[in-house]
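#onboarding

Welcome to the new folks! Below is a worked example of what a typical request in this channel looks like: someone posts a single protein sequence, and someone else replies with the predicted structure as tokens. Don't worry about understanding the tokens yet, we'll cover that in week two.

Example request:
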Amino acid sequence: MGFLVMILTAVAVVHVYLWRRLVRASTTPGSRLRRVLTWALVVLAALMVVTMAGSRLSGVEVVRVVAWPGYLWLALMFYLFVFGLVAEVPRAIAAFALARGRRTTPGTAPVDGAVDGAVDDAEDASVLARTAAGESAAVPGPAAPDSTTPVAASGGSASGGRPAGGGPGADAPAIDRRLFISRTASAVVAAGALATVGYGVTRALGDPVIERVPVRLPRLDPRMSGLRIAAVSDIHLGPLTGRGHTERIVRMINGLGADVVTIVGDLVDGTVAELGRLATPLKSLESRYGAYFVTGNHEYYTAEGPQEWIEELRSLGVRPLRNERVEITHGGAVLDLAGVNDLNGALSGDGPDMGRALGGRDADRPVVLLAHQPVQVAQAAAHGVDLQLSGHTHGGQMAPFNLLVPLQQPVVAGLASVPRQGGGDTQIYVTRGAGFWGPPVRVGAPPEITLIELRA
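Example response:
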């Protein structure tokens, strides 16, 4: 409940910021454009809330109809916010220059330098309206020594409504410049956000990148050198993906000629009844020593839990590793392949058990561990694991989220190592995942299928 409140608060704050910077600062008070854009933001904010509660809707087709526009707006909102923050610096510089120019121009009234605030003042609104109507902004003032004609408030004579500062409507250009600055900044922010999201959609819906990663294991028997392990995670079958998403991943994995195929969690975002047909292509996975699966946190998000998917994958020829291990024999040598449940399973008594998965094995043999979350590598190192394969992070999925991942996980993406007690290192490879969660957008973190080649 607390997490939901935090998310809704963040959404509200960001929408208020976008309204102030992109709507209020760039439109005139009371204008039709301001009303239209304001209501558009309100509707989009409501759509996002409905989308984020999509799991409560009945029917995957209903969720799909809502999810596409909702998640695309979530991505666009995020990048409007990011580009808006970046634009604050040049916006502030332009506002300062405008205010300084107004203060040093003879016969002009000072302004406070705010780009958007002054536009909404009642006085500026009145001046803007009169200027648009071609009227003078004059008000009664002290009489000149030789005339009874009132003087304009701007410092000029009331004759013809011309201020002494030079040129008709001296206040109007200042207001126009403020609007020009705000509208230019808003246009740049919108163009940058649209271009970024458009690029991210093409990356998310395109082919995953094949990452070929050689990993040296000191305890690996030389006869096993060259063993190839295909690793894929975070496929996220759900309302925004189709059967073709799975078929493409299977086709690309089969093209690698892997000895072992591993699916490292977060395969699905729904139940077997809703998404079972999307997973069917997994039965066509090809490898010499089999395909294996461990749960991710998303397998625990449905009311049915992961068990129905465990049975479904067994029927498709993919073996779940439930806090257990198997022996992989290659070239007369043996390697242990172990898998543990995701940390989220602990809430339902189905959490990871390293002792069960790794206890009682031959300590002279190397062991490769499948664990969805990279943070589990600390325990893996304590149990003498040689290599851990993980996912979960999506590589950040949408930069600059990658800068926040280290707050929770020790590795964002790629190969790293953790020292073990007693000497040596536990290596960990974190794959960026082959799918996406939430917005169908990937920026700075293309989808990935990994081919690990073990070397002695």
